[in-house]
Write a structure and sequence with these properties.
heterodimer, A: about 290 residues, alpha+beta, Uridine Diphospho-n-acetylenolpyruvylglucosamine Reductase, domain 3, Enolase-like, domain 1, 4-stranded antiparallel β-sheet, 11 helices, B: about 160 residues, Ubiquitin-like (UB roll), DNA polymerase, domain 1, 2 domains, 5 helices, about 35% helix, binds flavin-adenine dinucleotide, binds FE2/S2 (inorganic) cluster, iron (chain B), metal ion binding (chain B)
Chain lengths: ~290, ~160
């Protein structure tokens, strides 16, 4: 195996495009585990952390551009980001321990392409995009279009994610992410749910995005769940309909951590709770 | 394949080493530099016995390549005591018997020190969450948490 730490995007693209079996190294919290267990035997590892800008969080068009090497811990320490997208920051903050937080990145969580990746439903709910660089130049795509199937992304050879963009937080908007795990820390989501919504002055939902993780081969945007609450105040009956839409959309597997029925039920419960938190935040209150 | 030459700082000392691209920072510390204080409990980021700080950030040295240490500032358990004088956390762990076999202890001390530098007055819940990535098979955690809380109180009184 060869290790390279290029200083420019161009040099990184050249390296990645020039070698079969080349892997990007961001925080390494997935990659190193796979290296150790010989699940992967890369010829080349390209460390992107020395490329200018990769460690920066910068304001852009009222939103935030987050470099691909920014860790979960760094996101949690960024007051502006926490104020605008608390759900995304909390989702990233759920990844692993303090030690893992010191290294794990959003783009790594996304490109590892686990159906249970915690930050991904939150980014999808927030309508986040990624900037992809590669031999063909630069393109921006929605986060939801990155995962293809478990462990696989839609990125072409030689491409990598340079940054994640969280759009301007809508006025009277709020977001939240919740997951269910059998323990209180350090576990993989059995179900994850992200909600981002906007309320009008009467407290009615004017737009919403609801996403589910870990209940299908990849993250899903549940449009029926958003439609269920559109134009309505988040009273019991609206929340009930939201939960029912999420339970119906979930198509989980059955394993020792949860039956299909249990996961479906939890998808609805989490959606309901996440929507309540997002609504509280949309009203400018803390939750 | 030729080895990688890395120049870094470990516990404040300028250090150079040669390593393979596959070597983790933990491999380098233990096998190339003879610093065996950091332990390998799992090698997969779960146990925290390999905890070190890199540029002030707490990380698992088993989940970082040695080559990544180029130009960074690494601190390990070996840098915790000043000469013969133990760090207050180390003294408290002995006094309160917050260890049995001791394999988790270096990682827990490094992690706890990093917490107290960031937050001198943590709640018990904050200590438990901060140390959630440090597993201990012996103590049941209670003595560890109390030793960290006690040290924090001592340090606050002293400052
Ligand atoms: C103890 C432990 C606990 C964990 N707990 C959780 C958890 O609770 N929830 C959760 O979701 N995950 C968890 N993880 C998994 C992991 O920490 C996350 O997926 C993390 O976000 C990965 O980010 P990274 O920067 O470390 O990725 P890396 O390991 O550097 O990379 C992961 C994959 O993505 C590719 N990649 C990385 N960056 C890019 C890029 N910019 N462009 C293209 N490809 C890229 C790499 O080549 C690799 O294939 C845990 C891991 C450990 C070790
Ligand atoms: S050896 Fe690194 S976390 Fe267990
Ligand atoms: S003292 Fe034995 S593992 Fe903690």
């Amino acid at each position: 195996m060869r290790y390279e730490a290029p200083q420019s995007v161009e040099a990184a693209v050249d390296l990645l495009a020039g070698a079969e079996g080349a892997f990007v190294l961001a925080g390494g919290t997935d990659l190193l585990v796979k290296l150790r267990s010989e699940m992967l035997e890369p010829d080349l590892v390209v460390d992107i952390k020395r490329i200018a800008g990769m460690k920066e969080i910068t304001p852009e068009d009222g939103g935030w551009r987050i470099g691909a090497a920014v860790s979960g811990a760094e996101m949690g320490e960024h007051a502006g980001l926490v104020a605008d997208w608390p759900g995304v920051v909390e989702a990233a903050g759920l990844i692993g321990s303090t030690q893992v937080q010191g290294r794990a990145t959003l783009a790594g969580n996304l490109c590892n392409a686990s159906p249970a990746a915690d930050s991904v439903p939150a980014m999808v709910a927030a309508n986040a995009t990624v900037r992809i660089v590669g031999p063909q130049g630069t393109r921006d795509i929605a986060v939801i279009d990155v995962p293809e199937s478990p462990g696989k992304t839609t990125l072409a050879p030689g491409e990598f994610i340079a940054s994640v963009f969280l759009p301007a937080k809508p006025k009277q908007g709020g977001d939240a992410y919740l997951r269910f795990i059998p323990r209180t820390e350090m576990d993989i989501a059995v179900v994850g749910c992200g909600v981002s919504l906007v309320l009008d002055s009467a407290g009615k939902v004017t737009s919403a995005r609801v996403s589910l993780g870990a209940v299908g081969p990849k993250v899903m945007l549940v449009e029926a769940a958003a439609e269920a609450i559109l134009g309505r105040a988040l009273d019991d009956s609206a929340l009930e309909d939201l939960a029912a839409a999420c339970s119906a959309a979930a198509s989980p597997i059955e394993d020792k951590r949860g039956t299909v029925d249990f996961r479906r039920h939890v998808a609805g419960v989490l959606a309901r709770r996440a929507a309540e938190i997002a609504a509280t935040r949309a009203k400018g209150e803390t939750a | 394949m030729s080895q990688i030459h890395v120049t870094t700082s470990i516990n404040g000392d300028a250090t150079e080493f040669l390593c393979e691209a596959e070597d983790t920072l933990l491999d380098v510390l233990r096998d190339r530099l003879g610093m065996t204080g950091s332990k390998e409990g799992c090698g997969t980021g779960d146990c925290g016995a390999c905890s070190v700080t890199v540029d002030g950030r707490l990380v698992c040295s088993c989940l970082m390549l040695g080559a990544e240490a180029e130009g960074r500032e690494v601190t390990t358990i070996e840098g915790m005591a000043t000469g013969d004088r133990l760090h207050p956390l180390q003294e408290k762990f002995i006094e309160m018997a917050a260890l049995q076999c001791g394999i988790c202890t270096p990682g827990i001390l490094v992690a706890a020190k990093s917490l107290l530098e960031k937050n001198p007055d943590p709640s018990e819940e904050e200590v438990r969450y901060w140390l959630a990535g440090n597993l201990c098979r012996c103590t049941g955690y209670d003595k560890i948490i109390r030793a960290v809380m006690d040290t924090a109180a001592d340090l606050r009184r002293a400052s």
